[in-house]
């Protein structure tokens, strides 16, 4: 499991690599990517449920 010390080290390394100006942009891009992925997988799960319901009838 990732502890608070590990998160601090990861944050410092990311800050050194990308810089303070680029880091918020990367966070925003990562958030939108995760949101898209969640919506896409939700659609797949809904499609699966619909096909199972049709087979049961």
Integer-rounded radius of gyration: 19 Å
Helix percentage range:
over 70%
Number of strands: 0
Which parts are unreliable, with pLDDT below 50 for 5 consecutive residues or more?
Answer: none
* Sheet of most strands: none
Could you give the distance between the termini? 45 Å
Number of helices: 2
Structural class based on helices, strands and sheet pairing: mainly alpha
Mean pLDDT: 85
SSE order, as H and E?
Answer: HH
Instruction: Give the overall silhouette.
Output: elongated
Strand content: under 5%
In short, what is this structure?
Helices cover 86% and strands 0% of the residues. The chain is mainly alpha-helical and 57 residues long. It has a domain of 38 residues.
Notes on the protein architecture:
This protein is an all-alpha fold and 57 residues long. It has helices at residues 4-18, 23-56. The chain is elongated and about 55 Å long.
Q: Helix and strand layout, with pairings?
A:
Elements: H1 4-18, H2 23-56
Task: Output the keywords.
single chain; 57 residues; mainly alpha; 2 helices
């Amino acid at each position: 499991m990732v502890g608070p010390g590990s998160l601090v080290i990861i944050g410092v390394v990311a800050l050194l690599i990308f810089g303070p100006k680029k880091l918020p942009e990367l966070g925003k891009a990562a958030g939108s990517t995760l949101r898209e992925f969640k919506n896409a997988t939700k659609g797949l799960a809904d499609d699966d449920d619909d096909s199972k319901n049709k087979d049961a009838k």
